[in-house]
Amino acid sequence: MSPKPSIVAVGAHAADMEFAAGGALRKHARQGWDVHLVHLTLGEKGSGTLSADAYGAQKQSEAREAARWLGGTAHFMPYRDGELANNDEVASALALVLRQLQPQVILTHWPGSIHLDHTHAYHLTLRAHFMAAIRHFEVGGLPAVRGCRIYLTDNWEDPTDFVPFVFVDVSAEMEDWERACKAYAIGRGEGGFPYWDWYEARTRTHGILRRVGHAQAFAIDETSKNRVQDLL
Ligand SMILES: [Zn+2]
Asked: pTM of the prediction?
């Protein structure tokens, strides 16, 4: 097991976590954390011209390059874009990954999404964390995950009722985060939606209000608000 702290971002599609949390991931990497991006699907049905197989291969190599810019490692799970099932088979497979990576922090989607894969990724991640954290679940013979905090990301496709809880100042990460986003053709605007413009503007707007350059927003689940701490 790595002695370094670990942050694991679970996205429905390759590119989701890089766009929504890449600045914060890069910052953790620079501060000595192990950074992992777990892609439940490749998002391979997103091309208007390429076949799903061809676009999936392209997304996989884009995801590897994006992870390099963020100082992290890409992991690929074998599920299909638009068909991500919310069940215990998938959650168990994800729980195994969490036990292998032993994160202190997990990031995933906010559930109020226009994309059912994103909503399912949220539920799968919470269920997988539950399985990984309860030692009585037999998961790969590996020790349980302990004391892990879960944060939900600010994604343009997941806007319904999103309320930021905490912000990370990513001003010093903008260059590498932009390179990671633009490792993807869609990040360069080739899919028609100006992803980088939206995320750059979003984090700048958050930053202006918090008196920093650029800030990335994260929410937490209602149930996570019931924490016990020694001191405030
Ligand atoms: Zn997505």
From this structure: 0.96
Are the C-beta atoms of residues 97 and 75 closer than 8 Å to each other? yes
Measure 202 CA to ligand 1 centroid, in angstroms. 17
List the domain boundaries for the chain: 6-223
- Rounded to the nearest angstrom, the distance between the alpha carbon of 58 and the centre of ligand 1 is 16
For 138, residues 6+ apart whose C-beta sits below 8 A from its C-beta are none
- The pLDDT tens digits of the residues spanning 119-169 come to 999 999 999 999 999 999 999 999 999 999 999 999 999 999 999 999 999
The topology (CATH level 3) of 6-223 is Rossmann fold (3.40.50)
CA of 39 to the centre of ligand 1 (A): 10
C-alpha 77 to ligand 1 mean position (Å)? 14
- Predicted pLDDT of residue 225: 85
Q: How far is the CA of 1 from the centre of ligand 1 (A)?
A: 30
